[in-house]
Amino acid sequence: MLFKQQALLRQKLLVLGSLAIGSVLYLVARVGTLDRLQPTCPIEGRLTDPDQIPLRTLQFKRGLLRKLCKGNASREQTHRQSLVQQLPRAIIIGVRKGGTRALLEMLNLHPAVVKASQEIHFFDDDENYARGIEWYRGEMPFSFPHQITIEKSPAYFITEEVPERIFKMNSSIKLLVTVREPTTRAVSDYTQVLEGKERKNKTYHKFEKLAINTNTCEVNTKYKAVQTSIYTKHLERWLKYFPVEQFHVVDGDRLITDPLPELQMVERFLNLPARIGQYNLYFNATRGFYCLRFNIVFNKCLAGSKGRIHPEVDPSVVTKLQRFFHPFNQKFYQITGRTFNWP
Ligand code: A3P
Questions:
Q1: DSSP E strand boundaries for the chain
Q2: Pocket test for ligand 1, best of 282, 301, 306 (most atoms within 8 A of CB)
Q3: Active-site pick, 97, 115, 174, 320
Q4: Which positions are catalytic residues (predicted)?
């Protein structure tokens, strides 16, 4: 009898436990999919003032959507004001390894921002570009009309044809460039390539061998990781199409150590109400980086491929590179009006 009661109790506990775990998993799964909103629900033009939007938690986004779905919008309103795929009003054009992913994910904390999750490579890839602007729009996430879509493709910054192509799409688009101290960025760039080679069991040169021309002992300006870090050279190409006011430079080093002030500057640049707060960012000691908090249940850190350990570089090579970049950096500060403490 006692044995039977115990078995019954165990069974009940098991059911209750499964229910609890199931509920938690369900909640996490629901919250995790919230920004993949489907274009099934009409909206009633109630979202025109971004200042009216409280800080987005992902639940808020879904809750709002449901509320609006229950509304009594007419069929005509339904068609007129559905969720839409909008062309980006701002693009993170680079710089590779400057913290472009962190910037995009962090901006996506804002209720009025919707991100294109993947790098689209529309303007730098001739094949994609030939597919036309409606193909590009089709790659964009669904959003409410008052929201702005942002995409990031760091190759844009260094690809010759891109400024003109973006200009043709929207000459008043806002352009975000996140930069890091150029030598650190070059080493980060090298580390990414090295990891790719190692994954394929291939050997690769040391950074020093690539960055320094062994014949002249000078900086190898043909090395792509060096070229990409000459920010002013690329920016000058962009300035043939866009005025400097349309660019905002983000300090990618500060984005690592203290992201909030950088994000607040971007909010202002994009004319968005200040909605990203300290609550949304927390330092994860294990990762050694800030991670994102959307709400009480849903947090996320960037993938492990962000924040690699860099190889040690010969200090004399570091100094040589820093000296090489110095005059270009000065010019970059002068043009952009943003000065960094780079050596
Ligand atoms: P490292 O891997 O050299 O550390 P990108 O997204 O443009 O490829 O940039 C990657 C860099 O973003 C990483 O370079 C990392 O330092 C930086 N970063 C900035 N904020 C980060 C964050 N919160 N989590 C992870 N990496 C971050």
A1: 84-85, 90-94, 113-115, 142-143, 148-152, 174-179, 247-251, 281-284, 289-293, 299-300
A2: 306
A3: 97
A4: 97 (for sulfotransferase activity)
Ligand 1 neighbours by CB, cut-off 6 Å:
96-102, 154, 188, 255-256, 289-290, 302, 306-308
Q: What is the pLDDT along the chain (343 residues), one digit of tens a residue?
A: 444 555 555 665 555 555 555 454 444 433 433 333 333 222 223 233 333 333 343 434 444 443 333 334 444 454 456 899 999 999 999 999 999 999 999 999 999 999 999 999 999 999 999 999 999 999 999 999 999 999 999 999 999 999 999 999 999 999 999 999 999 999 999 999 999 999 999 999 999 999 999 999 999 999 999 999 999 999 999 999 999 999 999 999 999 999 999 999 999 999 999 999 999 999 999 999 999 999 999 999 999 899 999 999 999 999 999 999 999 999 999 999 999 999 9
Structure token digits, residue 271:
């004319």
**In whole angstroms, what is the distance from residue 329 CA to residue 340 CA?**
9
Q: What is the pTM of this model?
A: 0.81
DSSP for 154-178, written as a single string: GGGGG-TTHHHHHHHH-TT-EEEEE
209 is catalytic: no
How far, in Å, from the CA of 229 to the mean position of ligand 1? 16
Give strand pairing partners of 113: 148
Best CA proximity match to 307, nearest among 292, 288, 291, 293 = 288
Most ligand 1 atoms within 8 A of CB, residue of 256, 258, 283, 291 to mutate: 256
